[in-house]
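DM from R.C. (forwarded with permission)

"hey, sorry to bug you on a friday — could you get me a structure for this? deadline for the figure draft is monday and I only need the backbone to look sensible"
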Amino acid sequence: MIRVASQPVNDGYIARLSRFLGPVIMGAFEDDDVTEIYVNPCDGAIRLDTRSRGRVDTGARLSTPHAEQFLNAVASDHETTLTPENPRLQAELPSGTFRGSRLQGFVAPITQGPAFNIRKPPSVVYTLDDYVAAGSLSSGYRALLRRAVVDHLNILVVGGTNSGKTTFCNALLHEMEVLCSNERFVILEDTVELQCAAEDHLALRTPPGWKLAQLVKSTLRTSPNRIIVGEVRDEAALDLLDAWATGHPGGCATLHASTAAGALLRLDRLAQRANVPSQVHLIAEAVNLIALLQNTSAGRRVSDLVRVDGLHPDGRYKLHRLSSEAQQETTL
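My reply, with the result:
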């Protein structure tokens, strides 16, 4: 487990936000087990999503005035105003105390009162061995992932919302740094969440007005060995697949999906946003391994590793679920 350093920001702004949120929420920012903090307008209850305990009701409440003051302060810092005509706020909170967390906020009339979700980025990088020790990854899967990193397989990390995709991608990135320390890593994100300690790495994020696809195209001129994408969510899928298949293997990316087959279908739909036909042949060539994550009552876990072995004659993907004991596999 590797702790991530943070940078200080404006003390006055931090003090105002801290005062509005109160000690329970501020304590949640300091707790590495907490991944998300949220408040609903119906009761003001402060609820948490955690790695080890799942969803937790703290028993504390945030008053409507304090929730409004918090959202208005963040909106003002981002040079916008929450109004009935502009009732939604997406923002990145300061680094340091608030760890650059992502905020999604709402006010009336789209909710009955102020509401928000705060998604914390990983403050600690959990290694694959940490996953095994926590019972979230089998030792067989751990061995397969080590081999996949060494063999420069392209890995797609998939799962539902808040299943721990980014955290697991960080674990894979750490494995790459340890096993392939002489390589150049280029990391692309909309919001900074991935952590790379490799000596030779370039971390890029999309500036205002850019799409991830533009960033991927620019990346190809930076001589990367491995291309890591925080989340594939637009036509960048096409450029990423092309890069993975033509000289930049060994990458990793996350994608929202609940099954391996569903992930490849969604990847194809995203690629087609670039006004191209279906890219099943490119996907079958570029994606080698799919890691499926689940968020269960017992916590987040890697439920399946699925190998992509090209296409059947009828155009379906050849998918093989690997055994967690690394001895058997099942055709899907």
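R.C.: lifesaver. Residues 3-8 have pLDDT under 50 and may be disordered.
me: no worries. The chain has nine helices and 17 strands.
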